[in-house]
Structures are given as structure tokens and as C-alpha cells.
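#lab-general

N.A. 3:47 PM
ok so I finally got the sequence cleaned up, no stray characters, all 275 residues accounted for. can someone with queue access submit it? mine expired

B.Y. 3:52 PM
send it over

N.A. 3:53 PM
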Amino acid sequence: MNTTARPVRHRAWPRCRRCHGIALDLGSSRTRAWTSGRGMILDVPTVALSGDGPVHPVRRGAIVDTPGTAHMLDRLLGHRLPRIGRPLFILTTPVLGGVAFRTEARIAVEALRPFTVLTVPSARAVAVAAGADVITPLLVVDIGAHITEAVLLAEGTVVDAHRTELGLSDLDASEQPARIIDAVVTMVTTMLRQDRTTLTLDALRRGVLLAGGGALRPDITYRLTQHLHAPVTLAPAPHTAAVRGASHLLSAAHTHPSAAAACPPPASGSGSGSG
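B.Y. 4:20 PM
back already:
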């Protein structure tokens, strides 16, 4: 008798009622969440409440108050989670946030009792949201409220990355974005100078994929095109591109080894139709 275990075949995401996926973008300025089957369910300022009033638990792309972040997530998302099952999270992270950001973010998300938490670099999530080819070299510039990143992707991975702790919130209402433009040009120039291959040059010739709130400013797009001498393409809805890209990855995450047990096979005799 053949006793080899048959692999579990998951039903199409999000039709499995025991599975629940959430894409989460924990930004310095705003927190956004996208859940399978419902779309965007959260787009609010990243603010935690304390006895002394509102505080900002994420600053300059770093989690500075992990308990505060956990309380914020529980307050914002706890009541939105299904009573049955534990959610799988796809969490976007700043490319240069490193182990520290991923570790603190995972600790904070534990407040929501996740089944597992997978992370994706925000630049890759942006590329996925834009439907860009990430195999060939691609330069992603993400201009947020507190940080700006320039990231080179190739073969689906991060090859090089630079960032500056400068964003839209550092500009006065009437101030021209010259400082941000100069910072991006400096980062890209440094990447070109340090690259011993042609990857950065190939990506620049292909054009820059621009995301973040800064992409909503036409003056930034126009000046970047002029200063980089390269075409600049806006990611669709650039301010929410990261969380939407992470939401696209939920389908792939459904079959990730660490998520394999999240959706047990149907009980004996149960139907196989969509639920």
C-alpha cells in the first residue's frame, strides 16, 4: 500500500475561508493595509495613542516605539480580523531598514496573532504593483514623507540601495523640491560610480520608476527627468504602490513553505466548490 503523503492543494486565494491575508505598509507618515478579498481597508496616519497624547512610533523609516506600534496595530486592525483562523502578513520594509526594522515590525505585528509574517523590500513591492519586469535592471526611487530611497533591482533581487533621511515632510509648503532632487541625483551618481558592471547604467537607460508621495508632485517628476537625463515613469497610484504590490504577493505567499499549514485540507466528505 502506498503511504506517501499527498501534497496539500490549496484553494484559490482568497476563496479559502480558513486563510486570511493582509498586506501591511508601516510607513513613517501613514499606515496602510490591504486584505484579501476586500482591498484597501486602512490608510491612516502612523500615530499611536498614549497618556501624554499622540506619538509617532515610526520615524525616518525606523520603529522607535515597538509597544506603541503594537498597540496602534491592534487598535486599527484587531477588530477587522476574522474570528476563525490566523492571518498571514506580507509586510513591506524599507530596503535599508535592515534586520532591526524587520525584527521590531514582526514583534509589533504579533499583537494581531499572525500565523506567519513574510517581508518584502518596499522597492520590489512597488515594481510588482507597476507590473514592471524585475529580471532586467530596474531603478526604483521612492520619495516618502521622511525618507527617500534609490534602489537597483536585477534578477528579482536588490543589487544596490541608497537612502537619505529627507522627504516631503521636510519641505515647507512653498519650498521647491531642490533638496530632494539633489539627494536623488547624488544617490544615483554614487551608484553609477561604484558599480563595476553596467547594471546601473542599463537601468538608467531604461528609465526610473518613481513611487511614494513625491511622485504625486509634477515638479519633482519633471526635474528628475532633467537632472538624471533619463525617462521617469510613475508607478500607478504611487503613494499606495508598496502596499498594493505586497497585496499581489499574497497569492504567491499562499504557497510559501512557512504558510503551508495555514490552510489545512478540507474535512473528509467536504465539497470542493469555491467558497
